Amino acid sequence: MEQALSRQSEIGVLVLDAELRVRRAMLDAEQFQDLVADPGVRFPDLVASEDSEDIAENLRHVLENGRPMLFRTQRIRDTTTVVSLFALRLEGDGDGSLFLCLVDVTANSYARERLDLLFRAAESIGESLDVLTTARQIADVFVPAAADYASVSLADELFSGGEPPTRDAEKVRLRRAAVASAGMAAGPPYVQPGEKVPPIPAMPDRERYRAGEVLVVPDRPAMLDVVSGDVDLLSRLAPSGGRSLLAVTLTARGAILGSLEIWRGEGAPPFDDNDARVLREIASRGALSIDNARRFTRESTEALRLQQSLLPSLSQGTSVRTAARYLAASASGGVGGDWYDVVPLSSTRTGLVVGDVVGHGVRAAAMMGRMRTAVQTLADLDLAPDELLTHLDDLVMRLALENDNAALGSTCLFAVYDPVARSCAMASAGHPPPVLVRPDGRAELVPMSVGPLLGVGGLPFEVTQIVLEPRSTLAFYTDGLVEPSAADLYAGMERLREELSGLGEHDDLEEAADRVVEVLAPSGEDGETNLRDDATVMLARVRATSPDDTQAWEFPAREAAVAEAREKANATLERWQAPMETAITTELVVSELVTNAVRYGGGEVLGLRLIRDGRTLVCEVSDASSTSPHLKRARTEDEGGRGLFIVASVSTRWGVRFTATGKTIWTEIRS
After folding, report:
1. Tag placement on the chain: N or C end, fewer CB within 10 Å?
2. Statement: residue 525 has pLDDT above 60
3. What's the CATH code of the domain at 415?
4. EC no. (predicted)?
5. Does any domain span residue 308?
6. Does 472 lie in the same domain as 369?
7. Are residues 408 and 359 in the same domain?
8. Environment class of residue 302 by beta-carbon count within 10 Å: exposed (0-12), middle (13-18) or buried (19+)?
9. Residues 211 and 140 in one domain
10. CATH number of the domain encompassing residue 68
């Protein structure tokens, strides 16, 4: 059998003694050119060093029990040769000996390893949409499967969200992004993660390298040639333990994204053309994944920047103090359409609104901006919460027709707080109810009827009216805040209520908002949240207008009411010690508005109300007419028609709101 096998060039035969030394070797020189098995050499010393003890033990077991070893795949030391081993004990040999049959399976082994490496790359690279995470995944693919060390450097622009340089760019600035090591020495002065990579001197194959060709450097002297003999530069570019290098530029869609380098150390076979082909395939896949992550990051950043520019910078009014927090979703979720707003209304009232637009990205952020603008416009008309949501519902349906159903299913909650009446009217379009925290710290979910989502159309919204104690706090939020912290939405709402319980009337709202976010949407070790959807919370603490700061009267709708109204207003302003200029302006406004109410109001009774709000004086005149007044310029020869024009000229701002019994014209006069 020994002679028959030895005639097969692709099969080698070795006979070992009891000490596992070679007695005879029959190896085809051309087939097994990397394997030198001289007599007396221990066979375990011929295989890869990490396998030496294991194969020695297996061969001793064959000698001891006579059970053959079948089809063991083994790499030969310091070579690229891989063989399949068959070992059996030779009977009748007093000293004990082994018969080894070797089949060269280098090509098959390499193909299998190549497929395994490519499979690992396909499985892991690109599963993240974060640029640095993708860079780490690329480096991890090669170590330790194909290299002892790997590093990925990225163009400087990718760290700041900019556009990468094109292939014809004269200068490309790189920064080390990720490394992977199997124990190779790679300390300073070698470039560490986060540090800038010094430029490589011009070389003959530079353009081919920048175009994506693999640079193969077999040994340390060749590396020195690449850097034109600059020893200091070599110490920056090559790890001290590196002996063989493959390097390739990461390019995608005509841009240079960075570079990938893999190294082998002392004792490992140098890289060859087969390794270069695998590197190029994985580098191509990795570059495309990095570019996808870069583009996603850029879009997410732009969407977040757009959304934050559209969110309000909350101003603190006299009737409501507010604090708000917005958290974007994790990178995989993308920026969503959460939004909130505080809208100053007439007569010291305040509109409080929170909403959630369906979708993610720039489109959702832009739609959120349109929704917020629409709510501000509708709120300026002094519409009741249910009427405002009805108009907003119509708008969403129109936008859906224009933008492929965009914004359908969005939610919104609109509330109006009146500090004089100490009441809050609110209506919801599919949005969860707010949490009410009373001054003593008791917290409860506001019982209210939640209407249909925006865009459904044809269904009414119901107004919920509640009376608020002074210094009560309302907590508005989106589902993204409460859903991740509990099994379902309602459990999350209850957890938010529990977290807000105990919030005192003098506790800082900014600190309270931070605490809510930390508990319900905690950040990980990297400082990022794992939110699937963006989250918003807005806390609003209300105050009440003192009875001493408001005064209201009713007068019969006749000419005598003008003088009587002026008299009542002057007496009140004198008691409030209003500045002379404010008193004179208010007297003029009262005269003109009451005169108009008498002439055009159409009812039997008109009302006058004054509200003192810091340095602002609010004057309201109500009548039974539902006709909206129009500001116009009277001609020189006209005897009337100047009243409303005069009011608008002397007031800081003015407007009209309609009620169930007519309308109210209001003005604000600031001293």
Report:
1. N
2. no
3. 3.60.40.10
4. 3.1.3.16
5. no
6. yes
7. yes
8. middle
9. yes
10. 3.30.450.20
The residues near 387 (Cβ < 8 Å, ≥ 6 apart) are none
Instruction: Report the distance separating Cα 181 and Cα 259, nearest Å.
Output: 17
Stated as kind and residue range, the H or E segment containing 80 is none
Q: Pick 175 or 270 by higher pLDDT.
A: 175
Contact 179, 263 (CB under 8 A): no
Question: CA-based angle 286:291:293, to the nearest 5?
Answer: 95
Q: Is the pLDDT of residue 497 over 90?
A: yes
Tens digit of each residue's pLDDT (9 = 90 or more) over 423-470: 999 999 999 999 999 999 999 999 999 999 988 877 899 999 999 999
Boundaries of domain holding 568? 547-670
Domain count, the chain: 4
Alpha-carbon span 391 to 514, nearest angstrom = 34
* pLDDT value of residue 222: 85
DSSP β-ladder status, 450-451 and 423-429: parallel
| Greatest mean pLDDT range, 234-243, 405-414, 589-598 | 589-598
Q: How far apart are CA 619 and CA 599, in angstroms?
A: 19
Q: What is the mean pLDDT of residues 181-202?
A: 87
Cα 292 to Cα 162, 296, 325, 533, distances in angstroms: 14, 6, 30, 21
- φ, ψ for residue 203, nearest 5 deg: -140, 160
Which residues 6+ apart lie within 8 Å of 621 measured at CB? 590, 593, 594, 596, 597, 606, 607, 608, 664, 665
**Higher pLDDT pick, 114 / 417:** 417
Domain end marker among 69, 104, 139? 104
Domain match, 538 and 551 both: no
Assigned token pair, 317: 């009014």
